[in-house]
Design a protein that fits this description.
The structure is a homodimer. By secondary structure, chain A is mostly helical. In chain A, 58% of the residues lie in helices and 6% in strands. At the A-B interface, helix 2, helix 5, strand 3, helix 6 and helix 7 of A face helix 2, helix 5, strand 3, helix 6 and helix 7 of B. Chain A binds a DNA duplex through helix 3 and helix 4.
Chain lengths: 210, 210
DNA sequence: ACCGTCATGTAATCGGTTACATGATTCT
DNA sequence: AGAATCATGTAACCGATTACATGACGGT
C-alpha cells in the first residue's frame, strides 16, 4: 500500500526527479557520476544541481519504482540505474503537462542592487562587479558555442554537443540581457559626468532612518 | 556562548536573511505582512519568497540579535520587527562583499525542452506554451513600467514605485530574452515548411532505446 | 448578518546544501 | 613513490515549501 501510494504520487516529483529520469531515459543506464558530468556540461551552467543530489535522487526514484538499481560487485561498486516502464510513463506525462510556473531568476547581485541605495557608494561597485562577471560568462558561452557546433557534423542522433547547444542558447541570451542591464546600471550610477540634471533620487545614506 | 557563536555566524545568513534585513532597514519597522506585500510588488516577480518564509525568517534574525521584536497587545497581535545596529552592520558588510555566485535560472519549460526530443511532438507545444506565458509576463511588466514611472514625480526619497522600477527592469530584459528564445524554438520546431533541408536530427522517438 | 477575501500565523515534512571521507587514477 | 586530482559516496543539518488554520474587515 505504501508502494501504491508512492507510485501514484507522480505529483510530488521535483524538477530534480525529472532531470534524472530524463537523462537516464535518453542516455541509457547511468551512474550518478554520469549524471553529474552530463549536468555539469549542460543545464548545470545556470541551474545548479549539487552532486550529492544526483546521488540521492536516483535512490528515491528507485523506491518509487521508476528506476532499478544494480551495483557493481567489485572495484568501485558503482551504482547503475536503469529506467523502468513506470519511469518512462511518468516522464512522458510530465512532458505533456504544460508548466505554468514562471521562471525563478535568483541573482545575488540583483538582490544587492535592490538595496544599494542603503550604501550609495556600493551601487557602482556592485554594477561593475556584476558586469565583469556576466561578460566573462557570456564570453565563455560564446566560446563554447562556436566550438560545440561543428558544421556538418553528421552524427545520426543528438550528441551531448547538441544538448550543450540547446541549453546554452538560453544561457547566452540571458547573459546578453544581464550584460545590457548591468551596463546600464553602471552608467547610470557613474558619477563622472557631474551634470546639472538632477539625480532621480538623493544620494544620502538611507541606512539609518529616524 | 551560543549567542556569541550565533551572532558571529554572519556567513550563514541566506539571501532571505538579507532580503528581510534590507527591507526593514529601508522601510523601517515592519510586520511580516509588510514584508510580504513589498516583496510581492517588487522582487517577488522573479524570485519567489513564500510568505511563510517572511514570517519565520525575522524570528531567526531576532535570535541572532539582528532584529528586535515587539508584539501588539490586542487586536491582531502583529509582530513588529526593528533592525538593530548589529543588523545594519551585517547588511552593510554583505553589500560591500561582491557576490561571485552566478545566477540561478530555474525554468521548468527549459527543463522540458531539454528532454523534448524524447517526445518530439511535444517540443512545439512546449515552445508555444512558454512563448505565450513569457509574452504575457512581458506585457505585464511593460504595463507596470509605464504606469509606475510618473514623469516628474518629485518625491524626495525613493518610493516603492522606484523599487518596482529597479527590479522590474531586469525582469523585463529577461522576459524579452525569453520571448526571443522561445519564438526561435517554436519556429525551428514548426513542421509547416516541409523543406528539403535536412533536420538537424531525426525525429523518431528516442524514449525507448535498446 | 453573512460571505468572501484579506491578513496573520503555525506545524510538519522533505529536498537541498554543506561537510566529511575515502578509494582510484594519473602525473611528475 | 608521492602528490594531486578524479571519482564516488554518506550523513546531518536546516531552510524552504506545503498544508493547515483562524481572526479581522469590507461590502451587500
Amino acid at each position: 500500500m505504501t508502494a501504491v501510494r508512492a507510485s501514484l504520487a507522480t505529483a510530488q516529483l521535483t524538477p530534480t526527479s525529472y532531470l534524472v529520469l530524463g537523462l537516464i531515459a535518453r542516455e541509457g543506464p547511468s551512474t550518478p557520476y554520469d549524471l553529474k558530468r552530463h549536468v555539469t556540461a549542460t543545464i548545470g551552467h545556470f541551474w545548479s544541481f549539487p552532486h550529492a543530489l544526483l546521488y540521492k535522487e536516483p535512490a528515491r526514484l528507485t523506491e518509487l519504482g521508476l528506476l532499478t538499481e544494480e551495483r557493481e560487485a567489485g572495484g568501485r561498486r558503482r551504482r547503475l540505474f536503469t529506467i523502468t516502464t513506470a519511469g518512462r510513463q511518468a516522464l512522458r506525462a510530465w512532458l505533456a503537462r504544460p508548466s505554468r510556473e514562471s521562471t525563478e531568476l535568483r541573482d545575488l547581485g540583483l538582490l544587492q542592487l535592490f538595496f544599494a541605495d542603503l550604501e550609495p557608494a556600493t551601487a557602482r561597485s556592485i554594477a561593475k562587479e556584476q558586469l565583469a562577471l556576466h561578460r566573462a560568462q557570456l564570453a565563455a558561452y560564446e566560446a563554447g558555442r562556436t566550438a560545440a557546433a561543428p558544421r556538418g557534423s553528421s552524427s545520426p542522433s543528438p550528441t551531448i554537443e547538441h544538448w550543450r547547444g540547446v541549453t546554452l542558447r538560453m544561457g547566452l541570451l540571458y547573459e546578453r540581457a544581464a550584460v545590457e542591464f548591468w551596463a546600464a546600471v553602471a552608467v547610470r550610477e557613474d558619477p563622472s559626468p557631474p551634470s546639472t540634471r538632477a539625480r532621480s533620487h538623493s544620494k544620502v545614506s538611507l541606512i539609518r532612518k529616524p
